[in-house]
Design goal:
By secondary structure, the protein is α/β, with parallel strands linked by helices. About 25% of the residues lie in helices and about 25% in strands. It binds pyridoxal-5'-phosphate.
Amino acid sequence: MVSKRLAGAYLTIDLDALAENWRSLADRVAPAACAAVMKANAYGIGAGKAAPVLAAAGCRTFFVAHAAEAVALRRVLPEADIFVLNGIPRGTEAELHDRRVFPVLNSLEDIAAWSAAAGAGPAWPAAIQINTGMIRLGLDEEHVVTLAEQPDLLNGVDLRFWMSHLACAEDRDDPMNRMQLECFKRYREMLPAAPASLANSSGIFLGSDFHVDLVRPGIALYGGNPTPGSPNPMREVVSLAGRILQIHRVDSPMAVGYGAAHKIEGPGRIAVVPVGYADGYLRALGGRACAYIDGTKVPVVGRVSMDLITLDVSALPPERCSPGTLVELIGGQAEIDDVAANAGTISYEILTSLGDRYHRVYRGGR
Ligand SMILES: *Cc1c(COP(=O)(O)O)cnc(C)c1O
């Protein structure tokens, strides 16, 4: 953890907003249950801090991508059900079951391995994922048919829910959403009865048909907009502020940064802030993003370097903008979805790229 005294930029994570986001989604989907997706260190915000806060808010089911993430999460979540979306490596079944880490079984081979590991004793909890059109993980139609014809392949599996994943949920008008929902229903009618889970964050906003029994939000918990094109219904969780390191007065035409990519006519002022692409302030933001000082918009000019960015602060009088002044880079007026759009990406990538050179401040959560 980088100390405040030594850091050049501060990442603030609002754990109360996180809990409120979870509660608002849980209310929206009730009586369906609401899980939390914690993969990639809870989208970069810190799974060790986020998970206990969500558990205290009432969350009982957590998802990660990798078995190693589940084992780490178990240390801060003594009670919850933890599911591994990518499944678990062969040979680790008994060890993970002992830790009450449960796989999402994505193939008939996965099912056979889990069933064999459980043996003749009590069945072992797991989820089973079905591919309903995304062609990522899960059983294909032929495997669904096999399972429908031979339900005893599920012996040893305490099936907690059937699961599938939506490919286009962030576009509510995409016909793919309804097609996947119908496909999921059709498969479930063929298969042994069990609860089911389909919706990610955006899927929750497609309507109650999509909620089924359990929803799996990730990005919405962390403040990303699950309804692109409409106002963000979630509270902001992450904000990033950097401290100005140096100011240059420019009186005649000059160029700024690598490649001399930005020309400034002068007179004007350029501020240098110690945040760069190594910190997850993506290089694509150069010449495109904006930051804010005291509510005034200041454009990021020139290329983003590994450890520094340059801002045109000519609009601000020197007394409001000098070495040490804080610049809002993400959060507040620099909404994370806008920052992402300026980099040609999505909020998920901004969050999961955030580096470890920031001083991290966790607010609330008690
Ligand atoms: C990442 C993931 C989620 C969460 O998605 P968000 O869009 O962040 O809500 C849900 N389900 C699966 C299978 C995932 O991989």
